[in-house]
Amino acid sequence: MPRIVLSVAVVARSHPPVTQWGSRVLRPAQILPLVPDTPPRTLLSNESGVETWYLGPAELVLYSGEATHYRDNLESGRPSVWVAMPETGDPQAARIHSATVDPYEGEGLAGDVSLVVEALAMPAPLLSAIAEFTQAHFAELPFEKRRRKPVDMDNRAPRILQPEDKWGGRRR
């Protein structure tokens, strides 16, 4: 199965807690189409307590068999990259669990309560690379209506069980 691997960079933001009982939360915030030379988990800025961190690189693996899913993402009106990471408030302990452009895989990741999942806007260079891959590997499957098979009335189970056929009817 043909596949390609695209490397992207993930940027996250950490906001201070809203109340005194809350804790700082780190969430994916942006996708960069090129991986910089900056080491992972580097503080990029701190403005009024809002910290911006470079989390590190992530790989997007595109499989030809999922080209229909990628096309659905591109035609959605807001093409996205889903980034999942374990929930943490400490940027130094943060790591990227996975990144995907498959909307159905992203939806599945969002169901995991131990992960923070964000659908981030897809950068233009990434959009064109995925569109090219999708166009090369997309195959429309024709719709085929299935026909019902006739029922063999002689070999089917009775609709109403006799008392001796029930669990309580067999006594030893």
In short, what is this structure?
The protein is α+β, with helices and mostly antiparallel strands and 172 residues long. The chain has helices at 67-74, 103-110, 124-137, and strands at residues 3-15, 25-32, 42-47, 50-63, 80-86, 98-100, 115-121.
Please characterize this protein's 3D structure.
The protein has 172 residues and is α+β, with helices and mostly antiparallel strands. The chain has helices at residues 67-74, 103-110, 124-137, and strands spanning 3-15, 25-32, 42-47, 50-63, 80-86, 98-100, 115-121. The protein has 3 helices and 7 strands. The strands form 2 sheets. It has a 4-stranded antiparallel sheet, with helices on one face. Strand 3 and strand 4 (50-63) form a beta hairpin. Helix 1 packs across helix 3 (124-137).
Number-wise, the strands total: 7
Low-confidence stretches: none
Structural shape: flat
Mean pLDDT: 89
Helix proportion: 10-25%
Order of helices and strands: EEEEHEEHEH
Lateral arrangement of strands in the main beta sheet = 2-1-4-3
How many domain regions? 1
Beta-strand percentage range: 25-35%
Class inferred from helices and paired strands: alpha+beta
How can the largest sheet be summarized? Answer: 4 strands, antiparallel
User: Given the structure, what is the number of helices?
Assistant: 3
Query: Alpha-carbon distance between the termini?
Result: 58 Å
Global Rg: 25 Å
